[in-house]
Every structure is written in structure tokens, then in C-alpha cells.
Hints:
With about 190 residues, the protein is mainly alpha-helical. It has helices at about 20-25, 40-45, 50-65, 70-75, 80-90, 95-110, 120-125, 130-145, 155-165, 170-185. The protein is about 60% helix and about 0% strand. It starts with 19 loop residues before the first helix and ends with a helix.
Amino acid sequence: MAKDKDDNGGGFSGKRNKSWREIDAGRGKGSKYASRQDDPAQQKLERSASYQKYKAAADALFTGGELPEGLAKTFDPEGKRKAQKAAMQKVADSESRADWVKAVVDYLEKYPELPEDAYFLDSLLDHPRERIVDKALAKLELMSEEGKLKVKVPQSLDQRLKSVELTSMDPDMQGRAKVLREKLRA
């Protein structure tokens, strides 16, 4: 003989069992704050000095900044990242245009893969060698497609792209510079 089933479930307590749909619907409504940003405890945590230090270290890890000592040993034991950063700084610190041109060529011989630094790539668009300008333009296009140029874009990038568009001998490069410039303006 089958057991008689209560209409509302609940067993001994007499309390009705919730369906999975009701359980799932109630999951997001546990807090009186709509989001973590509205929560005063979360705001207090984000203002704390230790959180700021942690955030700076995490930003350095992903943006190419100086890594904390412990992370540097783990992620960059040979010091390649630091050496590349120093080489980029050497390019930026060049005193004359001729020194800068030579420093860029030396940098690209040592590190053929360009970094995802919009400011550095922006400066490379001003190089006299079309091959280097093409490489920088290709990296900027890739960053734009990945959405990495939305956050930090150098103010001079628009004018440098316009310069490439007007002065380049390669019509393909002119068209690519124009398309990227229009995409960044949108």
C-alpha cells in the first residue's frame, strides 16, 4: 500500500517544502544591499591600506609594473620582465631623435614581441622605418579588437594615426590607420 502524501509536504513540522524554483529565486535576495559596492563593510575594506597595497600589487602584475619581491621570484625568476622594462625606459629616456631611433631598433632586436603598452606603441608610430610602424600599428589593432584600448589611450594617438594615414608610402597601412582612428573616435 502506498503512503498517503501530504498535500503541502513538510513532514512532521507541518512546514511546506519549497520547490527548487523557489529556492533559486530566493538566493539572490539574501542581502539588504543590492550590490557589493553599496555595502558599507565592503567600502570600508576597499578603503583600507592593506587592500590598496594588494590592489597595487595585482595591477602591477597585470599591467607590467614593478612586481613585489615575493611575486618577482615566482613569476620572473630570471629577471626578464625587469630587463624589458629597463630597455623600454632606455628608449623613453633617449635625449635626441637619432638616439631614440637607434634605441627602438636595439629594443626590437632584443625583444621582438611588442608589449601591450599603448603609450609605448604610440611613440613607435613616429619611427622612420615603415616596418616598425607597421608592427606597432598591428599591435594597436589587436589591442583595440580585444577591447584593451578603451581604458587608457594616449592623447597623441589620434594625431599619430592621422600622420601615418597622411605620410605612409603603403596604402594598406594608410587604410588600417584610418580605420583604427575612426574606431577609437567612436
